[in-house]
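Entry, Tuesday afternoon. Goal for today is a structural model of the target with zinc ion bound, before we commit to ordering more compound. Inputs were pasted exactly as handed over by J.K., no edits. I checked the ligand SMILES twice against the vendor sheet because last time a stereocentre got dropped in transcription.
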Amino acid sequence: MNLIDAHTHLPGRSFGGKPRPIADLRREFANAGLCGAWIFTTDGLVMEAEKNNNILAEAVRGDRDFFEPFGTVNPHAGEDAAIRELERMRFELGMRGLKLHPWLQGFSLTHPSVKPILQRAGEMGLPVLFHDGTPPYSHPLQIAAVAEQVPSTMVILGHAGLDEAYEDAILACRRHPNLFLCLCGPSCGPLAEIVRRCPVDRLLFGSDGGFGSRVIETAIAKFHAAGLSQKTLQTIGCENPRRLVPKQPRRTDPPAQTHQHET
Ligand SMILES: [Zn+2]
């Protein structure tokens, strides 16, 4: 089984955590059964997005055959600054996607910077993964309303609505062809219902790996407990994430800078 986890975090100093060597994290993830992981900052969602984008890129620099880093920007920085950072993290740091967390980053989906950020991410081929499932700013239908305005951008609900809002996440996924659900969080019953009612090619496996111990093993066990077939897990856990973030040729360095930036 080639299982890619589409929702993991680089441990940082926030939430009582402490940074860990990437080699330890990779070993832990591989031992849990993963062959790759999309990885997000933790600290950068609560402070200093740029600095933490640099920290994440540097951390996974020698492990890009396993980790696909997703950077972040804060819409409160304003449209110009946020898009500048989005382009920097894409072209200079080689990030493969954008992670946004309206709840921790404290922005409304109606903030005027949000749509242009999503638009630009889509133009650059970056999928955008949102934290979702917790009010006030992270309800699946609030995110779906923005996704509808940027049909060329692939938008992912990072928690498929959690147990409290998974039914709305299902509606959103069925309604918007650019909306994906990452099954990180919902318990067995909702998980099975999501898989039964949504297009299977728009579902992803995720665990919040990097937070706590054995979260990946627990997420995998939940799939089996929900009665999902090995074939479904293969589609969700391998084919779909590879389609959104295609594997790149092995290299140890981020891609050469393609844009000139003033300092
Ligand atoms: Zn997360």
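Strands lie at 3-9, 34-40, 67-71, 97-100, 128-130, 155-157, 179-182, 203-204.
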